[in-house]
Amino acid sequence: MKPSILVTRKLPDAVEARLQRDYEPVLNPTDRLYSSDEILEIAEKVDGILPCHTEKFTAEVIARLPQRVKIIANFSVGYDHVDITAAQKRGLVVTNTPDVLSDATAELTIMLMLGAARRASEGEQLVRSKQWKDWSPSFMVGVQMTGKRLGIVGFGRVGQVVAKRARGFGMDIHYHNRSRVAPDLEEGAVYYPTIDELMPHCDFLALHCVASPETDGLLNRQRIAALPDRAIVVNASRGTVIDDEALIEALKSGKLYAAGLDVFNNEPDINPTYRELTNVFLMPHIGSATKETRDGMGFRALDNLDAFFSGNEPEDRVA
Ligand code: 8YV
After folding, report:
1. Do 247 and 126 share a structural domain?
2. What is the pTM of this model?
3. Is 53 in the pocket of ligand 1 (CB under 6 A)?
């Protein structure tokens, strides 16, 4: 008998076709966001769950999962929505989808950098609202990316692709990572053992670290103060790595020139002040939202399920 899988959200057609072929999937054709109670109810009749980051598997939810459920195969690289310690205690296998979204997320990061530096939100608003009346040499003047220093916090898969793309803009790469990466992966990037040491070298700062208790609020008042004046901050990792109050204060005071944000604390109910600031370029958590990548994420989650249900170790096991 084919294993039964709860698929919490509507996935790409090609992914659902493979699910239909190889599993007994419980699909969500209307893509309604399930509550934890609904997930627990449906979970009574499945062997595994294929969720997105929108479903939270807290210790309490994991404790209530039926014994029949053996694997959570995430459709995401980040797994901060799953209590890994609780999963390990319960013997629940957890997987993620690395690699396949690095290019899409890096592209979005470059878009955030350009959008913030070239005042994309303001420009778009001017054109759409018919407020664009004139042109002058001082009109909509922004900051150039070419030749600037880019600091990257978290030099993993995504951070390294961002560095490659940014080199195309002639940027010098500086980075902090939990450990220094091999010289062939550094490609000349300058390593700083602490985030504090990196800060003064960032005309642009891109955050690509994982969300964890250690990275919670890592971009705080003190670190923003250590950035060069008029620096630009972008974030396509998780909202939790930024202290919103500190960032907003710096965007208002002019300490920072601009920010580009794709992820936020408490999405989608973000800090409302962001909406009022003209020097932030805002996107609704779409880092991996390309057709190619969403297919890739689904297939990678399925590869993990296939390995698990054929008695092998899933390639992307995180618990
Ligand atoms: C997705 C992401 O939007 O993979 C991640 O960690 O943040 C994004 O790719 C989302 O998490 C899909 O579940």
Report:
1. yes
2. 0.97
3. yes
Q: Are residues 53 and 120 in the same domain?
A: no
Domain of residue 264 covers: 102-282
pLDDT at 63: 98
Q: What CATH number is associated with residue 74?
A: 3.40.50.720
Would you call 285 a catalytic residue per the annotation? Answer: yes
Task: Please count the other Cβ atoms lying within 10 Å of the Cβ belonging to residue 205.
Answer: 28
Question: How much of the chain exceeds pLDDT 70, in percent?
Answer: 100
On whether residue 133 sits in a domain, the answer given is yes
Catalytic residue from among 16, 107, 186, 267: 267
For β-strands 48-50 and 4-7, DSSP reports them as parallel
Same domain, 42 and 150: no
Task: Report the C-alpha gap between 110 and 89 in whole angstroms.
Answer: 40
pLDDT digits (tens, 9 = 90+) for 36-52: 999 999 999 999 999 99
Statement to judge: residues 224 and 142 lie in one domain: yes
Q: Please say if 238 is a catalytic residue.
A: yes
Is the CB of 110 within 6 Å of ligand 1?
no
